[in-house]
Write a structure and sequence with these properties.
Elements: E1 2-6, H1 18-32, E2 36-42, H2 48-51, E3 56-62, E4 68-78, E5 81-87, H3 89-92, H4 108-126, E6 132-136, H5 137-148, E7 161-166, E8 174-175, H6 179-182, E9 196-197, E10 200-202, H7 203-208, E11 213-216, H8 219-225, H9 235-239, E12 246-247, H10 275-287, E13 298-305, H11 311-324, E14 328-335, H12 337-349, E15 354-358, H13 362-371, E16 374-377, H14 387-393, E17 397-401, H15 404-409, E18 426-428, H16 433-449, H17 451-463, H18 468-484
Parallel strand pairs: 1-2, 1-6, 2-5, 6-7, 7-11, 11-12, 13-14, 13-16, 14-15, 16-17, 17-18
Antiparallel strand pairs: 3-4, 4-5, 8-10, 9-10
Helix pairs in contact: 1-18, 4-5, 10-13, 11-12, 11-16
The protein binds adenosine-5'-diphosphate (ADP) and alpha-D-glucopyranose.
Length: 500
C-alpha cells in the first residue's frame, strides 16, 4: 500500500512527546512490512539545517477560496524512510513548534491547515496516489476533511481512504470562528455536529466526521473516549462514527530503548540483577547530586509538565515521602512553570534526596529509565503512555494509575501478591493523593522487605515485548478493511445534538 503519514512531530527531527516516537516507529514498522510510506512533517526552523540539504519541489496549495500559498516540499531520507519536510515560511519559520514558549501561536489552525492541504497537493504534484492518508491528532486531521470535500470531485483521491489517529483527545484546536473561511471550511459545516463548538471552531471535532476510519493508541483509551467522563467533551462524536473507534496499542522502538545496547547509559545490562543496573543507579545519583546509596529506593518520573500527568497528585506525595519515608526521587520535565517551581521548591528543601531537572534532555531520560528502581506515572488520563513501557524493558517497575493505555500495558501486583508469575507493576485507581501515596508505600514495602518478589516483577517486565510489528500488522488490517469498504459519506445532520 502507498501510505501518506502526516504528523506534526517526528522522532529524530523534533519531539515534544510520544506522538513523535509513534510518527517515526510506526512508519518504520509499516515500511518493514513492505509498504511504501512517506512521512510528511512541517519544515520547522529548528531543523532547518537538515531539510535545507534536501532536494526541493515548489508548488501552490489552495487552502481556501481566498488563500493560495506557495509551499516548498523538501524530500529526504532518514534511515530507510522517506520524509517530506513541508516548508511554508509564514507558518513554520519560527522558533517554537506550537507556541512561543509561553503562549500558543494564534494562527495554529491555519499553520496546520497548510501542512494538511499541502501534503495532499504534494501527492498530486508527484503523481503519487496514496491508498491511505494517515493523519495524527488535530494538527493533520483536516486532511480527512480536504480529501472528502475539497477533492470530492477529483478522481485522484477516489480510491484513497483517510485515517485519523487520536494520540491525545484533549487537544482539539478550539479557535475563533473567523478561521473557518481561512482554512477552507464551508459555512454549512459550521453546525453543532461538525466544526461548531460553543462559540467557535473545533478542528478535531469537525474532522472526526470526515475520516473513513478513526483509531486511538490503546484499547483502554478507545473505551474511555466513548464515555462522557473520558471523551473530553467529544464522546458523542466518537460514539457516532460509522466504523467503531478502534484501539491499537502503541509499540516500543527497542532499537532506541534497549538496556543491552543503549549508548546513553554508563553500563549496558541484560538482566535486572546484572551489576550494570546498579552501576547506572550509582551514576545517576552522582549526576543528580543525590546521596550515593545502592540500597535506598530511587523513584523517578519523566514527563511533560501538564495537568494530564497528575503533577498535582505527585507534588504532595513527594513532600510526604521526603518528610516521613526513606527514598530518593529523580524527575525530568518541562512545561508549566508553576509546576516546575513547585518541584524546584522541594529540591531546595531536600537537595540530596530529590532532584528535578527542568528541561528536555533525551540522554538524561535514558539514564533515568536505567538508573531508577521504579517509575511514577499517576496520569489523570493516558491515551497510551510510553515511559511505563520503556521502564519495563529497563527492569524499572512502573507505578501507574488505572487508566487508558497504562492499564493495557502494566499487570498490577495483586493484593494477595500471588500473581508473581505475571505481575509487572503497581496500579491504583482513585484520582487522589491518598490512593497514590498508599500504593507508593505498598511498593516501597515490597522493595525493602520482599526482595524475591521485586526481582520476579523486574524479570517479568524485562521479558515483555510491545512489538511495533504487531501493531503495524493491526494497522495494515485496519487499512485493508477500509479499502474494501465504501468511503465514508458525510451527510449533513440537522438534528439537535443535545450538547448545546
Ligand atoms: P506524552 O506523549 O503524553 O508526553 P508519552 O509517555 O507517550 O507521553 O511519551 C512521552 C515521550 O516524551 C517519551 O519518549 C519521554 O521519554 C519523552 N519525554 C517527555 N518529557 C521529556 C523530557 N523532559 N526530556 C526528555 N524526554 C522527554
Ligand atoms: C500522546 C499521549 C500519550 C501517547 C502518545 C503517543 O501524547 O498523551 O499517552 O503515548 O500520544 O501515542
Amino acid at each position: 500500500m502507498k501510505i501518506l503519514f502526516i504528523a506534526s512531530e517526528v522522532e529524530g527531527f523534533v519531539k515534544t512527546g510520544g506522538l513523535a516516537d509513534v510518527a517515526y516507529a510506526l512508519p518504520k514498522a509499516l515500511h518493514a512490512l513492505g509498504h511504501d510510506v512517506r512521512i510528511v512533517m512541517p519544515a520547522y526552523q529548528i531543523i532547518r539545517d537538515i531539510w535545507q540539504q534536501w532536494p526541493v519541489t515548489e508548488f501552490e496549495s489552495q487552502i481556501s477560496y481566498y488563500n493560495r500559498e506557495s509551499v516548498h516540499a523538501h524530500y529526504g531520507q532518514h534511515e530507510d524512510l522517506s520524509v517530506i519536510a513541508m516548508s511554508h515560511e509564514k507558518s513554520f519559520a519560527r522558533n517554537g513548534l506550537y507556541d512561543d514558549g509561553q503562549y500558543a501561536y494564534d494562527d495554529n489552525a491555519y499553520r496546520y491547515a497548510v501542512l494538511s492541504k499541502a501534503s495532499l497537493d504534494w501527492c498530486k504534484v508527484e503523481n503519487w496516489q496514496p491508498d491511505i492518508v494517515h493523519t495524527n491528532d488535530w494538527q493533520s486531521a483536516l486532511a480527512c476533511f480536504y480529501v472528502s470535500e475539497h477533492f470530492a470531485n477529483d478522481d485522484f483521491f477516489a480510491n484513497t481512504r483517510t485515517v485519523l489517529s487520536i494520540h491525545n483527545g484533549a487537544y482539539q484546536m478550539h479557535c475563533d470562528k473567523r478561521w473557518l473561511a481561512e482554512v477552507g471550511i464551508d459555512e454549512r459545516f459550521y453546525n453543532p455536529h461538525d466544526f461548531e463548538d460553543g462559540n467557535g471552531l473545533n478542528i478535531l471535532k469537525g474532522s472526526l466526521g470526515f475520516a473513513d476510519g478513526v483509531t486511538t493508541v490503546s484499547p483502554g483509551y478507545a473505551s474511555e473516549l466513548i464515555t462522557p467522563m473520558g471523551g473530553h467533551g467529544l464522546d458523542f462524536k466518537y460514539r457516532a462514527l460509522t466504523k467503531p473507534l478502534t484501539g491499537i496499542l502503541n509499540g516500543c522502538d527497542y532499537d532506541q530503548w534497549n538496556p543491552e545496547t543503549d549508548p546513553w547509559i554508563i553500563k549496558q545490562f541484560a538482566a535486572a540483577d546484572d551489576a550494570g543496573k546498579a552501576q547506572c543507579k550509582r551514576a545517576l545519583q552522582k549526576e543528580l547530586q543525590l546521596d550515593i546509596d545502592p540500597n535506598v529506593p530511587l523513584l523517578g518520573s519523566i514527563c511533560r509538565l501538564v495537568d494530564q500527568k497528575g503533577i498535582h497528585l505527585l507534588v504532595p506525595v513527594i513532600l510526604e515521602l521526603m518528610k516521613n519515608h526513606d527514598c530518593q526521587i529523580a524527575m525530568l520535565g518541562s512545561g508549566d512553570q508553576t509546576m516546575a517551581n513547585q518541584l524546584l521548591f522541594i529540591q531546595r528543601q531536600y537537595p540530596h534526596r530529590f532532584h528535578f531537572v527542568n528541561g528536555y534532555d533525551v540522554g538524561l531520560s535514558h539514564r533515568i529509565e536505567a538508573g531508577i528502581d521504579a517509575f511514577l506515572m499517576p496520569s489523570v488520563f493516558e491515551p497510551c503512555g510510553l515511559n511505563q513501557i520503556y521502564s519495563l524493558r529497563y527492569g524499572t517497575i512502573p507505578l501507574v494509575r488505572e487508566v487508558g493505555g497504562l492499564q493495557d500495558t502494566v499487570c498490577r501486583l495483586s493484593q494477595s501478591q500471588r500473581n508473581l508469575k505475571s505481575a509487572t507493576g503497581f496500579m491504583f485507581s482513585e484520582l487522589s493523593e491518598e490512593a497514590l501515596l498508599t500504593e507508593t508505600l505498598r511498593m516501597l514495602d515490597v522493595y525493602k522487605n520482599k526482595h524475591t518478589q521485586w526481582r520476579a516483577m523486574q524479570r517479568n517486565g524485562m521479558a515483555k515485548r510491545f512489538s511495533w510489528k504487531k501493531s503495524a500488522i493491526q494497522y495494515q488490517e485496519f487499512y485493508r478493511d477500509l479499502l474494501k469498504s465504501p468511503k465514508t459519506h458525510h451527510a449533513l445532520n440537522t438534528q439537535s445534538t443535545g450538547q448545546d
